[in-house]
Amino acid sequence: MTAPRVVAIVPVGAIEGAKSRLGAVLDAEERRDLALRLADATVHAAVATPGIDETLVVTPDEEVRDLALRAGARPLRQRSGGLNDGLRQAREEAVAAGARAILVLPIDIPQISAELLEPVVALADTPEPVVAIVPDRHGRGTNALLLSPPDVIEFCFGGDSKDAHLGAARAVGARVEVLDGPLALDIDTPEDLLLAQADTPEAVGG
Predict the structure, then answer these.
(1) Mean pLDDT per 10-residue section of the chain, whose length is 206 residues
(2) Of 3, 67, 116, 153, whose CA is between 20 and 30 Å from 123?
(3) How many of the other CB atoms lie within 10 Å of CB of 144?
């Protein structure tokens, strides 16, 4: 069986003002630097992952577009402000490029690596519809989302997205995989940042 063509999608919002929930522990410049380091690590990990044929970075930010090009990814200028809207735009591009599966990777994951992404990507190698979710450590958000085919469900990022994605997958009868491990740690709060600094200081400047 021919392995599906998998396209990674990395959504990156405006870097200025990013990570505002860390304002109690990081100043604006530190938050900006952190967001850029995380974006760079995420894009490089996706580009290096066996089984990912192309990485799309959807962003309104010119600096992130340059970062994507340097890493070997393809930047897309986001046309609308919302995360889910940007993902739909990127999905259209991925499908036009021949994608049979997509992997959505937000830039919050300090321990991201090709080694950790490879088993997630491998789940696309099946003829049946699949939705694979890596929840955050609280079991509420979605840290990575594999969709095979790319339009098997709609994007439900925001709020309790894990349960929303699970519900959408079950509603269409897709095979559901919920994965755990280091990818469950993301950086949204000061507590998350402390955990990341303990585990991956080089990624977050700890």
Answers:
(1) 76 83 81 92 96 96 95 93 92 95 95 96 94 94 96 94 96 96 87 78 56
(2) 67
(3) 23
